[in-house]
Design a protein that fits this description.
The structure holds two protein chains of two kinds. By secondary structure, chain A is mainly α. Chain A is built from 15 helices and two strands. Chain A has a two-stranded antiparallel ribbon with strand order 1-2. The chains are: A mainly alpha, B alpha+beta.
């Protein structure tokens, strides 16, 4: 009985799946990281973020795990970490030396986070974890410049466990968010005067919506609060054939956030994982399953 | 795959990751035990968290530190309870105000996602250290645009939702040339 269950589990994890959603995820994740870091440079904030407060930087927080400054010196550590991370993100995007680039890139990207903790948000952590997952896949052999340069054959399939791992991780993320919201404030499902979604989406420190003007449409936000909780408490559907249907709800949440709030790459980073969720709808069937 | 599942469950079990030991010990525990089956179930979950999950999570914590990843997610919980804004005044002239198109100085920087935590904690958390870096940054940037400036004031205002009532000043910080050492006038 146990042996049979174990064999079924192994067969399930070892099944072949289509590699294209993973390759698209690789491209989108690296594009988000690259775009975000280039934006820092464009705004002239490199010194401010990655120098310590004593050296003219913004943040007074000093983290134990920020060890690059001991190795190369305080004034150049941030710039080194930035340069290596940008280079690795570009390599991952182009599909050249992807696996080494992921290994090195994740470590230096993490160092950037340790160097300037206020700017290292949940989405940075999520994307680093996604890169670690992608390390174990052949996503680097599909839609990759290295295939052209080195006349390498493109990958067609990947092992199914990585689909499961990414979906499992998304389930944990959304469930944590949903349960956390309800534990913090029951108004998410209630009829309170100011629904949490209204307060979030009209917060002048994070959003573009004027709290006065939008209060006239408060019922819309209340409905949005309920919908958000329903979506965040039902990600288990990702493991079923209703995965793309659920993903429509998730997409609407993230697209709404992208339009109304100033959260930078947060929404786009989350949506970078959605090609896998929408795979049955956006890719032609080549005989390999998408789940 | 099993390792991934175990890792995520131990380090970020949804719901348990937000519980504190005080939620299911002491007098609170006694109260829960008197609440029937639901209370006893909550205590049992709390004990599982305290004696099984947390010790394992503590031992695995380092695996999250090096790559700075996480398995516990507290994405936006319920938003602020009041309407808070940050204003930047240069010699009594308003240059920037949150969500104010008429005063957009350095808006791209101040609303950038990596910068925004500095701004929001300056406005709302008196115990955070971020105000120093934020105020010094505002002063040095203003000096680039107005080399003869006398003083830069960073002000945190607060108003109730919706903000029909006038906002009142809650926090004030200043910095002046030539050294731009930030000072807190009101917390």
């Amino acid at each position: 009985m146990i042996a049979r269950l174990w064999n079924r589990w192994v067969d399930h994890c070892d099944r072949d799946v289509d590699v294209r959603p993973l390759a698209l995820m690789r491209i989108f994740v690296s594009l988000c990281i690259l775009g975000d870091l280039v934006r820092v440079l464009q705004l002239g904030l490199l010194d401010d973020f990655y120098l310590r407060y004593a050296d003219g930087g913004l943040s007074g927080i000093e983290e134990y795990w920020w060890f690059l400054d001991d190795v190369v010196g305080r004034e150049s550590a941030g710039f080194l970490a930035y340069g290596v991370t940008v280079t690795c993100a570009a390599l991952i995007l182009l599909g050249i030396g992807v696996r080494p680039a992921i290994l090195v890139g994740v470590l230096f990207y993490a160092q950037l986070g340790h160097g300037y903790p206020p700017g290292d948000r949940a989405i940075d952590r999520i994307l680093r974890l996604m890169l670690i997952f992608l390390f174990f896949t052949p996503a680097h052999q599909k839609w990759a410049l290295a295939n052209v340069l080195f006349k390498r054959e493109a990958a067609v399939k990947a092992k199914g466990w990585i689909y499961d791992a990414v979906k499992w991780f998304l389930i944990v993320v959304y469930l944590c968010a949903g349960i956390g919201k309800l534990m913090n404030n029951a108004d998410w499902m209630g009829l309170g005067k100011f629904s949490p979604l209204y307060r979030i989406l009209t917060d002048p420190l994070a959003s573009n919506l004027d709290p006065n003007w939008w209060y006239g449409l408060h019922p819309l936000f209340r409905f949005g609060s309920w919908a958000t909780i329903i979506i965040e408490l039902t990600p288990i559907l990702l493991l079923t054939r209703f995965c793309p249907h659920w993903a429509v709800g998730g997409f609407l949440i993230h697209f709404g956030i992208a339009v109304t709030m100033n959260l930078g790459m947060f929404s786009w980073g989350m949506l970078a994982m959605y090609p896998m969720l929408f795979a049955p709808w956006i890719f032609d069937d080549r005989g390999l399953p998408f789940r | 795959m099993l390792a991934v599942i175990a890792w995520t469950i131990i380090l970020g079990f949804p719901g348990l990751d937000r519980m504190k030991p005080s939620d299911y010990t002491g007098s609170h525990r006694e109260r829960l035990l008197k609440q029937g089956a639901a209370g006893r179930a909550e205590v049992a979950i709390g004990d599982f968290d305290r004696f099984v999950r947390r010790p394992m999570a503590d031992r695995l914590e380092w695996t999250q530190r090096v790559p700075r990843v996480s398995h516990s997610w507290h994405l936006y919980r319920d938003g602020p309870s009041k309407v808070r804004r940050v204003e930047i005044w240069v010699d009594d002239e308003l240059w920037f105000r949150s969500q104010d198109a008429d005063h957009p100085w350095r808006r791209a920087q101040l609303t950038m996602r990596k910068f925004r935590p500095m701004v929001s904690t300056t406005a709302s958390e008196p115990h955070a250290k971020n105000w120093k870096g934020m105020v010094r940054w505002a002063a040095t940037e203003a000096y680039k645009d107005k080399p003869d400036l006398k003083e830069v004031r960073v002000v945190g205002t607060v108003a109730p939702f919706p903000s029909g009532e006038p906002a009142r000043v809650k926090r004030t910080y200043v910095a002046s040339p030539p050294d731009f050492v930030p000072e807190r006038l009101q917390r």
